[in-house]
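Fold this sequence, please.
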Amino acid sequence: MTELAQTLTQEQLKYLELLAQSYPNIQAASTEIINLRAILNLPKGTEHFISDIHGEYECFTHILRNASGSIRRKIEESFGEELPTEQKNLLATLVYYPERKLAELRRAHKLTPEWYRDILYQLVTVCRAATSKYTRSKVRKALPADFQYIIDELINTDERNPNRQEYFERIVDTIIEIERAEAFVIALCQLTQRMIVDKLHIIGDIFDRGSGAALILDDLCKHHNVDIQWGNHDVLWMGAAAGQLCCIANVIRNCVRYNNLDTLEESYGINVRPLAVFAMEQYGTDPCSSFFPRHMAEEDFVPNTHDDMQIAKIHKAITIIQLKLEGQTILAHPEYEMESRLLLDKIDLRRRTVTVDGVQYPMTDCYFPTITPETPYSLTFAEQELMERLQLSFLHSEKLQTHMNFLFKHGGMYKVCNGNLLYHGCVPMTPDGSFAALEVNGCSYQGKALMDYSDKLCRQGAYSKTGSQEQRDGLDFMWFLWCGPKSPLNGKNKMTTFERYFISDKATWTETKDIYYQLSDDPEVAAKILAEFGITSDRARIVNGHVPVKIRKGESPVKAGGKVLIIDGGISKAYQAVTGIAGYTLVSNSHQLFLSEHHPFSGIDSIINHNSDMHSNMVPVDTYPERIKISDTDEGKVIQRKIDDLLLLLQAYRRGIVNQNR
């Protein structure tokens, strides 16, 4: 028996025999080793990081299409001063929105054969640059079936080579002659978009505020390579889709608060009419003055339509139900340490006051027709029946379930990728710099263990046996992640929902951020957090969302000497008055790591009509002394392990331990 045969375990031998089914002989294994080793020396693919989208579909889709300026930079690299600025602007707009830009040019009678000939040469040049860092095999897999051969030929043919110039020109002329130029332009633009970014990271909060969350998820479901780190708004919707009543009530309240019922009704087919009928029955004579949606909360707003009044009544009705349901959940889970949020039983209707943290405050509204003082957290029969109907509507929304399954499949509480740690909220901490512990059923969870436990319970809530205790615990914990004091996704000591609706004293509205947000600005604390997740590289970074960076107040997205990057800069319009910008995104390519600071988005129509693009400032974070290769990435480590296995298989073939299939 050979020395190799003696060192192989039964498991290793069984694995090599399985591997031999894919690589049945020395030639097949050798060819794959050569291929994989070549791939290791290619440049690392570009990673794109986006956070806190909050339903702003138009802004999101534009940032995705222009890859935070990466396409424009590729155009500049390809042409420099060769093309005038106006032509480069048009070319960029065409790549972003080929169908819409072509339609606009057609109306202006500009789609001549000469125009198509010029633009096709330019698009092939940009597409060639975008695909240059990938293997031909990977590019071929991304090619549209209709033009697969032609595009492959064009992007791999140097039209400046005298031996190939006529060949190239004849292909282009034929495309125009047979009237396939428009479809070919669209195909080239879509391929360029597809190849400019290799991996997309969404650092949480796809939902709430804006009305386009469903459209965003439709796009993400079609994306070639995306992962998602759940935000508190995402987990809230995931809990609602799984039937958790507190989550359902919060989702509906948020939609009403931002006048965004379209997401529920039109995008997901959730029937809120029973809620509207209930609200009018219970609050028909109540002005509900604290419950007009955010856009109606301006000082000069005067409600003057039936719809305005109805929305306010729906808002109040679901808020009261939410507070009752949350009270039930808090009482059922003392480990959540949320007793301070039990306020319905602290109301004194005679004095029109409520006691919060031992202090008595006057209330702005004391009309509570469905609250019984003796049992304030019990739903009335009508409320219970209503919530059961809404629960069924959430559970049976096919599109909602599809989107939530996608979030579970492609998402998690955090991700370690290429030496970086990605998460939405925080790693809860104590003032002395220790990781804060959550005690559950006699067990203590902190740091990475708390993140892992949270991830486990979310999946437990969604996929455990219906009605089991495991499912109930998981579902309730999803609500806790939305608003709990030690939740890694909430990152605050409380959520002052009650106070904001019923107490005018804004001192009671204060929500204190977890001490993490102060301590993580210290490079040593940032290094400690990274080490907790097994990351020790000097170049490692935490990529964090959740808390908008207030540029107006002098805040910086770069913390802890560059070890922490906060990329929630306010894509959501609701934040832009405070932040002063329209969000940060992060790009990591083979040469550098940089933030894009986006200015407020003017709209797609403006970009199409004026080739204006979204103005962004590039904020360098790190420039690599040597170009990063695939061998330096997580993907490279996986490839290297496969090479090692194939080398072992090669030895096994040559020494007769595993038989070849010739």
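The longest strand covers residues 616-623. Residues 296-301 have pLDDT under 50 and may be disordered.
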